[in-house]
Amino acid sequence: MAGIVGTASAAASFASGLFPSHSSKSASFFLPPASGLSSGRKFYGGIGVALNKGRFQFRVSISNVPTEISPAQSQKLAASKESQRPVYPFAAIVGQDEMKLCLLLNVIDPKIGGVMIMGDRGTGKSTTVRSMVDLLPEIKVVSGDAFNSDPEDPEVQGPEVREKLMRGEELSVVFTKINMVDLPLGATEDRVCGTIDIEKALTEGVKAFEPGLLAKANRGILYVDEVNLLDDHLVDVLLDSAASGWNTVEREGISISHPARFILIGSGNPEEGELRPQLLDRFGMHAQVGTVKDAELRVKIVEERARFDRNPKEFRESYKGDQEKLQQQIASARSSLSAVTIDHELRVKISKVCAELNVDGLRGDIVTNRAAKALAALKGKDKVDAEDIATVIPNCLRHRLRKDPLESIDSGLLVIEKFYEVFT
């Protein structure tokens, strides 16, 4: 299998290669009363009932919640997935090492903050992102929860799970693969944030909250293709959720907040428009993708694609071993990430590079440290060295530099030049 972790930027000479839909039910919960309010009504089946002593709670129903599935149902689901549109294997992607490395590092450490992929049309950006689905590891979630709640971390628990814990109920826990959610350009704000379930309101008289794409993407990946063409009002929603990790919905008498922590992945063509600076800064890493110039590689890409189109199942089977090796490597890196260390001297040099490049804020320092540790974990090391930093620092800082309209040199080259100046 071709190397995945190799040169990710102009730092190539300094970096070394490495590799040889469920049934639904409604669930209800109580939202705590807002402070300072002295009166209210309690909703049962859509009917308001006054509460005693001036206190109140809202009873809200959540609809479209996946229930626990039996082994027979899981077999049917597995069979249905096989019959769905096949996904091109990640291990079969030829070239584009920088993009693949950024994606792998974000799966290993989601706190890196996502990746923005910019490049020419037809260079395999969306194909590569969607091929990550097969490599995503499993996580523990509360069974039947609409927000993929973590049974152990209250910061990523939905309101219903928190209510169960307060009552001392035991949570049913299952393992499921990290979810990847596509955010289409034509999506409405209600579909993204969540809204009132009109059908339940009309038929049952219940104020039911129907979770949106942000709830589905919690603890998973949110992918926006052509993100530079996304409507401004949806950009504002993404900015708010990415900044706080929570999504607050105010709709027709319902006020609900739920966790919305996701890996934000965007792709786009710079010729079609620039991305708003506020959103660009929210991406932890930035990968630039160019058209492959080598004739032999181009021929190989065309042949591989033709082979996949001819018989997708056979093609995927031929890369099954490479895919499993990658899965094991990712799982091993995730488990060993907490043990990876970085010397204080290297941290100081990273911050010096950021300061001398006039990078606004400290997000660049934080992301570079996290990405370097994730790369060291992927390589099977327990300590970060300068080589790891050289590989990731252009991707972490190039989109944070102030734009100079008269500057013709690529911002990634500016970063690596400053890196050599500080580290040598």
From TrEMBL:
<keyword id="KW-0436">Ligase</keyword>
<keyword id="KW-0602">Photosynthesis</keyword>
<comment type="subunit">
    <text>The magnesium chelatase complex is a heterotrimer consisting of subunits CHLI, CHLD and CHLH.</text>
</comment>
<keyword id="KW-0149">Chlorophyll biosynthesis</keyword>
<dbReference type="GO" id="GO:0009570">
    <property type="term" value="C:chloroplast stroma"/>
</dbReference>
<dbReference type="GO" id="GO:0016851">
    <property type="term" value="F:magnesium chelatase activity"/>
</dbReference>
<keyword id="KW-0934">Plastid</keyword>
<keyword id="KW-0150">Chloroplast</keyword>
<keyword id="KW-0547">Nucleotide-binding</keyword>
<dbReference type="InterPro" id="IPR003593">
    <property type="entry name" value="AAA+_ATPase"/>
</dbReference>
<comment type="similarity">
    <text>Belongs to the Mg-chelatase subunits D/I family.</text>
</comment>
<dbReference type="InterPro" id="IPR045006">
    <property type="entry name" value="CHLI-like"/>
</dbReference>
<comment type="function">
    <text>Involved in chlorophyll biosynthesis. Catalyzes the insertion of magnesium ion into protoporphyrin IX to yield Mg-protoporphyrin IX.</text>
</comment>
<dbReference type="GO" id="GO:0016887">
    <property type="term" value="F:ATP hydrolysis activity"/>
</dbReference>
<dbReference type="InterPro" id="IPR011775">
    <property type="entry name" value="Mg_chelatase_ATPase-isu"/>
</dbReference>
<comment type="pathway">
    <text>Porphyrin-containing compound metabolism; chlorophyll biosynthesis.</text>
</comment>
<feature type="domain" description="AAA+ ATPase">
    <location>
        <begin position="111"/>
        <end position="293"/>
    </location>
</feature>
<dbReference type="InterPro" id="IPR041628">
    <property type="entry name" value="ChlI/MoxR_AAA_lid"/>
</dbReference>
<dbReference type="InterPro" id="IPR000523">
    <property type="entry name" value="Mg_chelatse_chII-like_cat_dom"/>
</dbReference>
<comment type="subunit">
    <text>The magnesium chelatase complex is a heterotrimer consisting of subunits CHLI, CHLD, AND CHLH.</text>
</comment>
<dbReference type="GO" id="GO:0005524">
    <property type="term" value="F:ATP binding"/>
</dbReference>
<keyword id="KW-0067">ATP-binding</keyword>
<dbReference type="InterPro" id="IPR027417">
    <property type="entry name" value="P-loop_NTPase"/>
</dbReference>
<dbReference type="Pfam" id="PF01078">
    <property type="entry name" value="Mg_chelatase"/>
</dbReference>
<dbReference type="Pfam" id="PF17863">
    <property type="entry name" value="AAA_lid_2"/>
</dbReference>
<dbReference type="GO" id="GO:0015979">
    <property type="term" value="P:photosynthesis"/>
</dbReference>
<dbReference type="GO" id="GO:0010007">
    <property type="term" value="C:magnesium chelatase complex"/>
</dbReference>
<protein>
    <recommendedName>
        <fullName>Mg-protoporphyrin IX chelatase</fullName>
        <ecNumber>6.6.1.1</ecNumber>
    </recommendedName>
</protein>
<dbReference type="GO" id="GO:0015995">
    <property type="term" value="P:chlorophyll biosynthetic process"/>
</dbReference>
